[in-house]
Amino acid sequence: MIQKQDSIQNENFDAVNEIRKFKELLDDGIITEDEFEDKKKQLLGL
Question: Which residues form the SHOCT domain (predicted)?
Fold first, then answer.
């Protein structure tokens, strides 16, 4: 049970870190707002 929670927390942490990386790309003008939103939804499983 604890191991499963740790796995979920690690996945969430990884998703948050990835979103932060894509936000930097957005802020730097490397990707568009639409690309950022698409990737964010994908990473969050929405």
Answer: 18-44
Each of the 46 residues of the chain gets a pLDDT tens digit; together they read 555 555 555 667 789 999 999 999 999 999 999 999 999 999 998 8
23 assigned to some structural domain: yes
How many helical (H) and strand (E) elements, i.e. helices and strands, does the chain have? 2, 0
Phi, psi of 25 (to 5 degrees): -60, -40
Domain membership of residue 17 (yes or no) is yes
**Angle (deg, nearest 10), helices 33-44 and 2-27:** 180
The answer to the question of residue 3 being in a domain is no
